[in-house]
Amino acid sequence: MPVVRFAPSPTGFLHIGGARTCLFNWLYARSTKGKFILRIEDTDMTRSEAKYLEEILESLKWMGLDWDDIYYQSKRFDIYREHAQKLLDEGKAYKDGDAIIYKIPQDAKIRFFDVLRGEIAVETEQLKDQVMMKSDGSPAYNFCCVVDDALMGMTHIIRGDDHIANTPKQIMLYEALGFKPPKFVHIPMIHGEDGTRMSKRHGATAISEYKKQGYLPEALVNYLALLGWNPGTNKEMFSSDALIKEFSLKRINKAATVFDINRLSWVNGKYIKEMDIETLMRLIVSSLKEKEYINDDYDKEWLRGLITLYKTRLPTLEHFANLASFFFVDKVYYDEAAVKEFLSTSEVAEYLEKFKQALEKIDPFEHKVIEESIRGLVKDMGIKAGDVIHPVRVALTGGTVSPGIFEVIEFLGKEKSVARLEEIIKKIVTRMRIFDKLKEL
Ligand code: GLU
Fold first, then answer.
1. CA-to-CA distance for 34 and 28, rounded, in angstroms?
2. CATH classification code of 336-440
3. Which atom of ligand 1 is nearest to 166's Cα?
4. CA pair distance 336, 118, nearest whole angstrom
5. CATH 1.10.940.10 corresponds to the domain 3-191
């Protein structure tokens, strides 16, 4: 039975690269009916922190990456000491103060098999003696990693290729301890757009940050799976179940991949579009409450309708609160360029006034009725619909982009729409008066 593991160190948050490594291990285990072990590599007592551990576990749960077993290296120091002692007793290691060090045999060749790269061979001359137990009593990574991977029965080590230089050292230790080495799969790194290794410079790296920004776990899993693995077809949308069905180690790409936030947002938008409205609403409500856009007794029916209106235009959940903010706040943020272009002539003030008067008479205040009435108005005035609709959109929403304006007006309601138009008309008129006065001078 295949046994694999993800072995994070709780010295930082779970980042995109780690999450993908974990996902590939998890997919391999689930697709082969194997076992997936989570091993917390918390040997560095000064750098490991409970908050990181919590965050890592939370992020993994959020992504749906469940584990069959969990181990903490900090609880296994006795085991490591015992194995180091064994090598010491056999004369394969020596002591330096309290540290125990493995003596690299000279003139030997180490070979190991990488599933993606084939056989790799290294001369032992190139390696230095390896610390197994440090003088403070804690084990060194290469040593406890081997002891655990062997004792826990790993069949495959799937990890980032930043560890490839460690692998020959680990192979030596497998051999010294009399364990059979597993197969290795070193997966290429994730790069930023500029071709260097993905880091904070390229944007958010922590999984928790993506959650905060309104990405869905299904979308992130889908995107990360395709970041370095390909199904061999053009298929782009994969549920976890579909990934489990199709995943294979052989289809992991050999070259580094570039993290593309726009692609992730596109995938995320697709998931949001297809999400069931009640679930979507629950997720959005909490962010609206946080922003104090709504409180506990909000109009459910109204919000459901509004979210339905927006759900095809949301790259992330957070976009809803941003794009639709003008429904919730009294002080609309006006885009300066839009105001200049659409709300600066006395003609426009006149159009808006007529539009406003038409709105006041509309009953029932429904988008179809509103549209009919406005189409009639425009015809009577002998102007193009756009001549009034563009200014109205800026006046009501603050910008030039929104869903259909008549739906927007319906959801905004008669009172708010009229009040907002009135306010803008007043502003334009005042500004025109000032301009006229200046001209007189
Ligand atoms: N704790 C190591 C890391 O986070 C694990 C490396 C490995 O998978 O062997 O890089």
1. 8
2. 1.10.10.350
3. 9
4. 59
5. no
Helix (H) or strand (E) holding 420: helix 414-440
Long-range Cβ pairs for the range 219-224 (8 Å, 24+):
219/264, 219/267, 219/268, 219/270, 219/271, 220/19, 220/63, 220/264, 220/268, 221/23, 221/63, 221/64, 222/267, 222/271, 223/263, 223/264, 223/267, 223/268, 224/16, 224/19, 224/20, 224/23
pTM > 0.85: yes or no:
yes
Encode pLDDT of 385-422 as tens digits: 999 999 999 999 999 999 999 999 999 999 999 999 99
d(CA 286, ligand 1 centre) in Å? 36
Residue from 67, 64, 414 nearest 219 by CA: 64
Residue ranges per structural domain of the chain: 3-191, 275-320, 336-440
Which residue lies with its CA nearest to atom 6 of ligand 1? 7
The pairing of strands 99-102 and 93-96 is antiparallel
Q: How far is the CA of 435 from the centre of ligand 1 (A)?
A: 68
Token pair for 14: 């779970």
Class of domain 275-320: mainly alpha
The share of the chain scoring above pLDDT 90, in percent, equals 93
| Amino acid residing at 27 | L
Show the tokens assigned to 162. Answer: 């930043």
pLDDT interval class at 355 (50, 70, 90) = very high
Distance CA 203, CA 116 (A): 29
CA distance 88 to 243: 46
Pocket, ligand 1, Cβ cutoff 6 A: 7-9, 41, 145, 159, 163
Residue 95: φ, ψ to 5°: -100, 145
Tokens 């790296």 locate to: 205
